[in-house]
């Protein structure tokens, strides 16, 4: 196969969620001496962006997003250490977790894949994450953004508890807070004092990039 065939195949097979073929093409590309960053930025990321665009148009639904995300995740497992070795710049660091009392993680995991595909370094704390665990992880990892995920209306109040914990620890001004999950709305996000909200994985990536750009612009302006 040619380099172009590898990239085209990666794009198309990620789009349809063919994980084994995506991994096989990734291995073939690496075996031909292709740069890990080329595979990522010229095929995998554009494909996932197209998945997001189709979701927004209503052509794709959550299952299609999930299988495409999983297909890319398999390739990322192979590429991640190679990308780190070549010093590929990440666009920001995103700390993510499902709040205390909630064990749902499908949506969170999909968001993580989309964020990683967009160039973020993602630290996933898993599910049932208590406020104090978020605080200690922020102190340890120094993320640009922290994401709180909730699937149940009964666990949504943990957003406010987490933000209060960040304020008490003196960390609130150091990190952008995003919230999301099936029952969450923009109005609720505003009410608890979050910086950002997104309704789905694709929108999360766009919102995260916008918030991060805004924060960096303020820092650059000395605000």
Automatic annotation (TrEMBL):
GO cellular component terms given for this protein: cytosol
B12-binding domain span: 91-222
Alphabetical list of Pfam families matching this protein: B12-binding, B12-binding_2
- Sequence ranges assigned to domain B12-binding N-terminal in this UniProt record: 1-91
Instruction: Enumerate the Gene3D superfamilies for this protein.
Output: Cobalamin-binding domain, Methionine synthase domain
Q: Which UniProt keywords apply?
A: Cobalt, Metal-binding
Q: Which family does it belong to?
A: Belongs to the methylamine corrinoid protein family.
Name the UniProt record assigns to this protein: Dimethylamine corrinoid protein
Its organism's taxonomic lineage begins at:
Bacteria, Bacillati, Actinomycetota, Actinomycetes, Micrococcales
Which gene does this sequence derive from? mtbC
């Amino acid at each position: 196969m040619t380099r172009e065939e590898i990239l085209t195949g990666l794009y198309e097979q990620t789009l349809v969620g063919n994980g084994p073929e995506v991994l096989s093409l990734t291995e073939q590309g690496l075996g031909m001496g292709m740069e890990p960053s080329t595979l990522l930025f010229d095929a995998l990321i554009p494909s996932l962006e197209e998945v997001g665009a189709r979701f927004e148009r209503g052509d794709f639904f959550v299952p299609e997003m999930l299988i495409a995300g999983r297909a890319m995740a398999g390739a990322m497992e192979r590429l991640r250490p190679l990308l780190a070795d070549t010093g590929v710049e990440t666009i920001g660091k995103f700390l993510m977790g499902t709040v205390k009392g909630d064990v749902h993680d499908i949506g969170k995991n999909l968001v993580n894949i989309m964020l990683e595909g967009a160039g973020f370094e993602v630290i996933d704390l898993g599910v049932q994450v208590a406020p104090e665990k978020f605080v200690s992880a922020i102190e340890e990892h120094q993320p640009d953004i922290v994401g709180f995920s909730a699937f149940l209306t009964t666990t949504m109040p943990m957003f406010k508890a987490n933000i209060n914990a960040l304020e008490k620890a003196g960390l609130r001004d150091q990190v952008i807070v995003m919230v999301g999950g099936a029952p969450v709305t923009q109005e609720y996000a505003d009410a608890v004092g979050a910086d950002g909200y997104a309704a789905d994985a694709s929108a999360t990536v766009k919102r995260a990039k916008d918030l991060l750009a805004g924060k960096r612009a303020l820092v650059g302006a000395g605000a």
